[in-house]
């Protein structure tokens, strides 16, 4: 079974090296076409953001925002979302709106 997550170090490296990048104040987004008919997601939250509880809460917010947007996205991409330190101050809806605007700028929304 093929996982819908990017988990291996080689997969992350490939997206970083070959993929396209777009940034906002709180999020950085990398994406690369894959060979599947669905999107795969990787989320990175660095230790500078806070302790494990804070990082995990931030990851859950990002994944949920992505889950709601994924239905509207073109399929067949590997997507990596990196949280910047300022994301701690945002609530879920602000993260959702920022993520949606990044996808809109790169014309990944169907």
Helix-strand blueprint:
Layout: H1 9-18, E1 20-23, E2 27-33, E3 40-45, H2 52-70, E4 77-83, H3 92-105
Parallel strand pairs: 3-4
Antiparallel strand pairs: 1-2, 2-4
Helix pairs in contact: 2-3
Structural summary, described in words:
The chain is built from 3 helices and 4 strands. With 110 residues, the chain is of the alpha+beta class. It has one domain (9-105): Ribosomal Protein S5, domain 2. Strands 1-2-4-3 form a 4-stranded mixed beta sheet, sandwiched between helices. β1 and β2 form a beta hairpin. α2 (52-70) crosses α3.
Give the uncertain stretches in residue-range form: none
What's the CATH C level?
Alpha Beta
Structural class: alpha+beta
Q: How many strands, what sense, and barrel or not for the largest sheet?
A: 4 strands, mixed
Mean pLDDT across all amino acids? 91
Reported CATH architecture: 2-Layer Sandwich
| Helix percentage | 25-40%
| Beta-strand content bin | 15-25%
List keywords for this structure.
110 residues; alpha+beta; Ribosomal Protein S5, domain 2; 4 strands; 39% helix; 22% strand
Would you kindly provide a brief summary of this structure?
The chain has 110 residues and is an alpha+beta fold. It has 3 helices and 4 strands, in the order αβββαβα.
């Amino acid at each position: 079974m093929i996982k819908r997550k990017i988990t291996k170090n080689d997969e992350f490296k490939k997206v970083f090296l070959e993929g396209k990048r777009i940034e906002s104040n709180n999020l950085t987004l990398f994406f690369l076409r894959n060979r599947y008919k669905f999107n795969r997601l990787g989320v990175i939250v660095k230790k500078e953001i806070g302790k494990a509880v804070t990082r995990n809460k931030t990851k859950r917010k990002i994944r949920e925002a992505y889950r709601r947007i994924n239905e509207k996205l073109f399929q067949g991409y590997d997507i990596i979302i990196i949280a910047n330190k300022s994301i701690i101050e945002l609530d879920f809806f602000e993260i959702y709106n920022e993520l949606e605007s990044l996808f809109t700028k790169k014309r990944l929304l169907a």
